[in-house]
Amino acid sequence: xxxxxxxxxxxxxxxxxxxxxxxxxxxxxxxxxxxxxxxxxxxxxxxxxxxxxxxxxxxxxxxxxxxxxxxxxxxxxxxxxxxxxxxxxxxxxxxxxxxxxxxxxxxxxxxxxxxxxxxxxxxxxxxxxxxxxxxxxxxxxxxxxxxxxxxxxxxxxxxxxxxxxxxxxxxxxxxxxxxxxxxxxxxxxxxxxxxxxxxxxxxxxxxxxxxxxxxxxxxxxxxxxxxxxxxxxxxxxxxxxxxxxxxxxxxxxxxxxxxxxxxxxxxxxxxxxxxxxxxxxxxxxxxxxxxxxxxxxxxxxxxxxxxxxxxxxxxxxxxxxxxxxxxxxxxxxxxxxxxxxxxxxxxxxxxxxxxxxxxxxxxxxxxxxxxxxxxxxxxxxxx
Length: 383
What we know:
This protein is of the alpha+beta class. It has 13 helices and eleven strands.
């Protein structure tokens, strides 16, 4: 017997299994299905799940396309690694600070209003950027540097430094006089007191005043170049300089022009390579000397990277093994080692593609991005 409604009638006297909702009567409860419909998340939260569901269907329907296309893309973009720079100097300031940072904009504003000229009117107080320089600190082993014999040794060091020359391209010689920062056509003296003594060996060193010394009517500021001072009686705004244990000899080099900057750095590298030989050759007995340069920090940074980078291969291997083994489970259903393996492979493909693409379009490579594979592998699921 077929009923018109398609359902069997309920037995007589049996209670209704579901509440009946009458249209227009809001006092009656709704069906449970209506409550479930009202509890569904909003559409923006349901879209990602639907998109990933469709993507999974496409991957399952066309597996070879999703396997071969990444390989072909990696082969194409991976060739960009041939543009990987070699032996390129890392500029810490330019490559580790934002391009449009407010600090750089303020520096450009200062440079527009306080111009400098390394070739004619160099002034370290007007410089708004780091300059190329080599600095020697001489410390006396006796009571004071204000003696003819000790100043003579300091003068020998100064003469040898200014006689140094490096070899440039095509065998050309780069002399200190060619790369030194100049004031009115002459190299800026390394130390004003030493320069005054070299010009006049009969200079009375017992009448030197500190911090300003008037030499032939020209005031010389000594506070930044003389250290370990012992002062005597006051002479106007200054005091008589009785003893000085240390003297600083800075050698400022040209920085503004790109070509001069490169030549200056070559001279500095030659200075660093030859300074130990200079100490042995001079056989200084009355004083000790130490040195530092504007590129010392940069060279130490690069040397540290060269010692750390070979260990990256072992680190990559260990983190890959950790990412895969941590997904192992004794339960065959929960075991995700294959998922972790393919996740590591996809991360490697992403690194090669990303590096190759960036090198193709000319983005400069900063050595710190070598840490990116670690960050990518850390995002892999570990079960």
